[in-house]
Amino acid sequence: MVCHLSAHGLASDGAGPFTFSVQGGQCLAVVGASGAGKSLLLKMLADLIPHEGLCSLDGVSARDIPAPQWRMRIRYCAAEPGWWAPTIGAHFRDPAAIGQACAALGLDGALLDAAPERVSTGERQRFALLRGLEDRPAFLLLDEPSSALDETSTDLVEALLEDAMDKGMGLVLASHDKRQVARLADDILEISRS
Amino acid sequence: MIPGFTSLEMALAAGLVMLSAGLSLVLKLGIHLALSLAALRMVVQLLLVGLLLRAIFSSGSPWLTLGLLVIMIGAASYEVGARQRRRLRQGWTFLVSGAAVSSATLFVAAFALASLSGSQNWTAPAVVIPIAGIILGSAMNAASIGIGSLLDTISAEKAGIEARLALGHSMRQATEPLLRRAIHAGTIPLVNQMAGAGLITLPGIMSGQVLAGFDPLAAAQSQIFLMFLLSAASVGCVVIAVFLTLRRLSDERQRLRLDRLEPARL
Questions:
Q1: Chain A interface residues (partner B, CB cutoff 8 A)
Q2: Theoretical Cys-Cys bridge with A10: which of A53, A105, A183, B189, CB 3.0 to 4.6 Å?
Q3: Range of the domain at A74
Q4: Complex confidence, ipTM
């Protein structure tokens, strides 16, 4: 079944109101200048910040779903992901099961035993993406997913995202990279501060 | 002068403070003024409190006792809030510390006085006020350190907490390490005090009773009884303070609300 995420009148801290909808298996790119509110919009969708307006998944309002359950389905990945455990692997529900996904992103599986501060920014960004995809959210809200990546790693990330979308996951992508938007997006939402 | 000490003995002890201030002047440490003012303030405060307590003890009035307890708890709650480098907006740090300090102190003091009811006149101001005062001091320190630890670390760990929330963890799961650290920090002074009691230092009550001519074993018993009370007050107070602070930094949708935190003061 294809999921359907809709937002009506989302507004917070001077950003918005935003009204749009996106289907599972599709990518909506959110574009706009720095400070336009792209990250705020993604955080509103994930219900991580107080906001006006309503979000719903398949017609069920976010307010009617406990916040942790909503965020398991509508998953936000920050541009600068946070870490809390001593090793990268400890951030995954099942570290043993992600070896193949690591290889698909050009990551050395041995890094799962490393401390987050010991791996490069680009490696952390790719591990954070794998962490976000691990339990198959209905929608992934990606904030600048390749800001610290070279061209080869960016291609690998995009291939993984396309594969997940082929399996029905929806993607809301905030990006400054126009070429990446052109490659991935089915629809574009251009935003600016009024 | 004060029973037990002659004026000469008090003057000699005061001379040590002056000696320390002189050392600061010679070595240009810059602490002589603060040290002298703090010593002077302490003398005035304690003599005034001594006079006040003498008046309340001789009156035996429960209302005066209650009034003094309210003032003591209010002052302790204010101190907990005022000492913080970061505070919750709209005076919430003071409300949280007031709730934690008053509930822990009143509960433990009531328990202590009920325990003593068989052997002492437990409603006498001379029993109620010193016991509540000692418990209050311990509760205040625990709350102050616990809240300070939580407020100082929560901003630094914002990215990690938000990452966990975004993955579907509850606010409780996402902040558990911080909670544990804050509660642990708040109980360190008490644990140190208990670990060192008798071995490294003679605690205050025991020293006072020994100096006043009590049997050392009876003085040790008093100190042990008191330490048990202080443990309960410290742990209870820091747990309440840290949980209430964290509750204020979250909302009904389990979001991290650092917008409810004032900027750090230097």
A1: 46-50, 67-69, 71-72, 75-78, 80-84, 128, 131-132
A2: A53
A3: 4-190
A4: 0.92
